[in-house]
Structure formats: C-alpha cells, structure tokens
Specification:
- The protein has a single domain (27-146), classed as Hypothetical Protein Ychn, Chain: A, CATH 3.40.1260.10.
- Helices cover 49% and strands 16% of the residues.
- The chain has 6 helices and 5 strands; from the N terminus they run αβαβααβαβαβ.
- The chain has helices at residues 2-24, 44-59, 76-81, 85-96, 105-110, 131-140; strands at residues 29-35, 64-70, 100-104, 127-128, 144-146.
- It has a 5-stranded parallel beta sheet with strand order 4-3-2-1-5, sandwiched between helices.
- Helix 2 (44-59) packs parallel to helix 4 (85-96).
- The longest helix is centred in the first third of the chain and has 23 residues, at 2-24.
- The radius of gyration is 20 Å and the shape is globular.
Length: 148
C-alpha cells in the first residue's frame, strides 16, 4: 500500500513545485504606467487600475517597483476620486501595495489645478516637473513603459 502512495506524493510535489515556479518566474520588475486620458468618454483609467492590480497579483508587490505617471487628462482619475469612494479605495489599495502616483506640475499649472484641494491623496513629493520628461527619465533607469 505504501508503494502506491509514492507516485501520488511525487505528483503532488511536482504540482506544488510547478505552481511555485510559475508564481516566481517573473522575477523583479520595474514598470511605469502612463495615464493621460480621463474617464469622461469612458472608464479608461478604471481599466488601467485593473491592469496595475493584475500586474501586482502576477508578479507580487515585493517583486515590483511600479509607478503611475499622470498628466493631461490623466489627472481626471484623481479629480474623480475626490468624490468617488470606490476610486479612493482602489488608489489607496494600490498605494498600500507600494505603487506611487506621480503628477505633472505642467498640467497643474496649465489647468490651474491645486493638488492640495482638487486631487485625491496627492502630496508635494508626488509632483514631478513634467510628466513626459519623468516617463523618459524612468525608462532610462530601466522601467518598462506601459500604456494601458
């Protein structure tokens, strides 16, 4: 009877090893998500938030350095989150997993937006001079560019 259990244990061990290898096969990653459209014509940024969470789920928060750069109409995400508890939960949940949101100062100035009163959970250290320059800078540092 014990001889019959050995193949069963071997199959279980191989399945567990394969599952572990799949979960760890992505390794360490650095990615920057570029958001410059809002949800006025559709929930484009909601899809981006889903992509980001799926990315974290696949790679693991500990294996991922993920930044979101918002400029132009992309600030609509954080404007909408001011009045949308669901979006606040999504943004807060991503931040809790280590995702950083970077906001373009050119857009803030050009559109006369106050990060302190008009955008959800944005702090001075979240502001970058230029969204597009930040994207290029991060890519030069090895971040993979993703445009959802």
């Amino acid at each position: 009877m014990h001889a019959r259990l050995i193949p069963l244990f071997a199959v279980i061990a191989l399945a567990l090893a394969a599952g572990t290898a799949t979960a760890q096969s992505y390794g360490q990653q650095k990615a920057v998500y570029h958001i410059n459209t809002d949800g006025e014509s559709g929930p484009s940024y909601r899809g981006a938030m889903n992509n980001i969470q799926n990315h974290i789920n696949a790679v693991g928060a500990d294996n991922l350095d993920l930044k979101v750069v918002l400029h132009g109409d992309g600030l609509g995400l954080l404007v909408a989150a001011m009045a949308d508890d669901g979006l606040q939960t999504i943004v807060g949940g991503l931040k809790a997993q280590g995702v950083t949101f970077q906001v373009c100062n050119n857009t803030l100035r050009g559109r006369e937006i106050s990060y302190e009163t008009d955008l959800y959970d944005v702090w001075e250290e979240d502001i970058v001079d230029s969204g597009v320059a930040e994207l290029a800078h991060l890519q030069a540092q090895g971040y993979t560019y993703i445009k959802p």
